[in-house]
Protein: Glycosyltransferase involved in cell wall biosynthesis
Organism: Prosthecobacter fusiformis
Amino acid sequence: MRVLLLNQCFYPDHVATAQHLTDLALGLKGAGHDVTVVASSRGYDNPQNRYASHESWQGIQIHRIWTPGLGKTAKWRRLVDFACFWLSATLILLRLQRFDVTVCLTSPPLISTLGSIVALFKGGEVVPWVMDLNPDEAVAAGWLRAGGLAERILSGLQNWGFRRAARIVALDRFMAARLMAKGVPAEVIHTDPPWSHDEKVRYDALAREDFRAQHGLSGKFIVMYSGNHSPCHPLDTLLEAAKELREDGHVHFLFVGGGSEFEKVKLYRERHHLENITTLPYQPMDRLAGSLSAADLHSVVLGEAFVGIVHPCKIYNILTLGIPFLAIGPVESHLSDLADRLPRGETFRADHGDVPAVVKILKIMSQREQSVPSVRAQELALKYSMEVLRSRLIQVIEAASVVK
């Protein structure tokens, strides 16, 4: 079977969608399929990182697209980068051979619609792997007006592509419900979250101490937010809690990753002279276990308006580690679904804006002795391992190739 994977990010980028798509590509190749990838030639968070325009990596053919790399500091810059990606991707896809199945992620927005248009002319089936929903996300973030001309056009394009899909992969029951509300038949939707990086992520006590010592954090109680910093994951409540605890020399906040809101965290730290906040860029995969194990409490944040639009992918690595986590977000969400399956004292939840509740939780947790990894959390994590979920996704893709 000839499979095309279409997304803005792929190996060697470190952003989450790149890592998951790379895992899928290797799994498909290992299952005997012919795999081609079309992705950007620039790093997602650092456009200065440039990758070869074409290479064969572990038997996978990678075609990379030039974009101007204007960055995310303004909407027009994003739009120009996206438009260049769509145009270049169109030219590459028309030039490439016909594929049995095209798997499209959702960055840049509506890229699955492009895959559907090309498949309409060249044949083959399309499987959108919906990492986030756009233009729904743009509306929830206030970037587009609901019911406006732009939103109606973009939603029409999105829904047309979804209606042509052989299968659609939703990440949780809330996202599946949104897809059904758009008219996607329930039988077309396969619901599974992205997997944990269980080959790379394990609780590592030695790497934990090395990482903490390297960054001057030994002996601290570390509250960590690791991953994409975006408007979908508003960090205001966590930052306000850091300000409230500025005189507590024991509690320290560590923000690791990138995204459009990463600079906001840095600016907040500087504006309020908060020495209890440290910011670090995305960590390479070979250091991820040490980085994530360094936390005493992980924080997972989901904006009220983004339930079913984005998915808290980082939670599965946290479950694998067995480290307690604090969920900041709405009661009705996938985070709450997971938290309800774990004992009290291993998970905590707070509403956005409830800074006193967050501060109380952090004070209580920081007075505890360091706990051993939770066996219950690690057992739950096994249900979301790459071995389990990747093989199911490959079966969905293989079945899509015979859809008529």
Notes: The domain at 205-384 is CATH 3.40.50.2000 (Rossmann fold). The mean pLDDT is 91. The longest helix spans residues 75-95.
